[in-house]
TrEMBL record, chain A:
Name this protein carries in UniProt: IBH1-like N-terminal domain-containing protein
Subcellular location, record wording: Nucleus
Region (Disordered): 81-111
Origin: domain of life: Eukaryota
UniProt xrefs under Pfam families: IBH1_N
Main localization, broad class: nucleus
From TrEMBL, chain B:
GO BP, sorted A to Z: DNA-templated transcription
Main location: nucleus
UniProt keyword annotation of DNA-binding present: yes
InterPro entries: bHLH_dom, bHLH_ZIP_TF, HLH_DNA-bd_sf
Protein name: Transcription factor BEE 3-like protein
């Protein structure tokens, strides 16, 4: 079976695929599901979803605001999960984020003078790290984010098709 | 329109032919015919010629012109009433003052010379108000500003202070990005306004995120199934399926 997906080894698609497959095999090797309890299944679902987002964010590195924000989020979440009394560390990351956002002068109601505040706010909630962006950057980031999401969906669809019976 | 050309024989209006949004132009002209002529009289004649360049810009913005023409009509009719107005003293005012002097001297060839000075004043004031308040791209007109570093075409009837120029540049960038997004997001029609497009984009992003979640759930199910059954069985089934797919 020849599936020449990744003709370009440095394209986003191939980078994401290799990382994601590696993460998937790691997850499956880590904990084979002993019981079919819903919590176990849910836990694995969460792990797979986080792996998908993480591998996508890592494929983009910190070149984009949204990927940087997503990596921050994932890292802080993993810190909090690993060590419940690492409040210091997570507090630091929170502080860094707050400082960054205050430096960039975010207000709860961004009046960009264009009049699309509600839609823009909703978009900001969807795109990771959107709260700290003005409308111009937000649209830029949204375009790249959509491109990455479509790649992610494509690859995951192919993998799921391959594995499902 | 013939009347206009007769009255304004001294001031050529070549842009009237070039201008694609003539309907908005003529409607605006109907509203205040006198001020229309008087307003244009003081523009430099040289500015008419580089209008051919504006065509390319205009063809890009033609679609926006269509959507904005309704907006323009509204803003024209309500231009006298309250509009967000920038600083009182801008260069526009100086130019309008110069124009006033020209107008009064040249309006003798017009219809009612007795009322023309007053009309010219109100006309210019109205145009200034609409100019400062109007954000839509109406008929395009270039004003030579030698000290500008940013080459933004100041459209007719718009203020030219640095704030509004920066605003216009920003808005141009935003429009450009929205157009790119239009190509990426399926279901976006060019005739839609910004708000609708943003809604479409939001829906699309949400649907993509949901798809990712659903697919990861599917992968979980597949891997769980794979875990529960013995490897050999699963491999067999997979091979059988691939063979059936090939045929």
């Amino acid at each position: 079976m020849n599936n020449p997906h990744h003709l370009n080894p440095t394209s986003l698609k191939s980078r994401f695929t290799t990382r994601f497959l590696r993460a998937l095999t790691k997850i499956r090797a880590q904990k084979p599901i002993s019981s079919s309890s819903p919590t176990e299944i849910f836990r694995r679902y969460r792990r797979i979803k986080v792996a998908a987002d993480k591998s996508m964010a890592y494929s983009v590195r910190s070149r984009r605001i949204w990927s940087k924000a997503m990596l921050w989020k994932l890292r802080s979440r993993s810190y909090r999960r690993q060590d419940p009394c690492s409040g210091r560390r997570s507090g630091k990351t929170n502080q860094a984020i707050m400082k960054k956002s205050s430096n960039e002068n975010t207000t709860t109601r961004r009046e960009d003078g264009v009049g699309f505040v509600e839609e823009a706010d909703e978009l900001r909630q969807l795109v990771p790290g959107g709260e700290t962006m003005n409308l111009c950057n937000l649209l830029d980031e949204t375009a790249h984010y959509i491109k990455c999401l479509t790649t992610q969906v494509q690859v995951m669809k192919k993998i799921a098709d391959f594995y499902s019976f | 329109m013939a009347d206009f050309s007769a009255q304004s024989y001294r001031q050529p209006f070549p842009f009237l032919d070039i201008d694609p949004t003539m309907e908005s132009l003529t409607q605006f002209a109907e509203l205040n015919p006198q001020s229309f002529i008087l307003d244009n009289s003081a523009f430099n004649f040289q500015t008419f010629f580089p209008l051919s360049i504006n065509d390319s810009l205009f063809s890009n913005q033609a679609s926006e012109g269509e959507t904005m023409s309704g907006f323009i009509h509204n803003s024209n009719q309500s231009s006298v009433s309250a509009q967000p107005i920038f600083s009182a003293k801008t260069e526009m005012e100086e130019i309008s003052n110069k124009r006033k002097a020209l107008d009064i001297s040249e309006s003798s060839s017009g219809n009612s010379s007795s009322t023309s000075p007053q009309v010219s004043e109100t006309g210019i004031k109205r145009r200034n108000n609409s100019g400062r308040g109007k954000r839509a791209k109406s008929n395009e007109k270039e004003m030579e500003k030698p000290k500008e570093v940013v080459h933004v075409r100041a459209r007719r009837g718009q203020a030219t202070d640095s704030h509004s120029l920066a605003e216009r540049v920003r808005r141009g960038k935003i429009n450009e990005r929205l157009r790119c997004l239009q190509d990426i997001v399926p279901g976006c029609y060019k005739t839609m306004g910004m708000a609708l497009m943003l809604d479409e984009i939001i829906n699309y992003v949400q649907s993509l995120q949901n798809q990712v979640e659903f697919l990861s759930m599917k992968l979980t199910a597949a891997s769980t199934y794979y875990d529960f059954n013995s490897e050999s069985d699963a491999m067999e089934r997979m091979q059988r399926r691939q063979r059936s797919l090939k045929d």
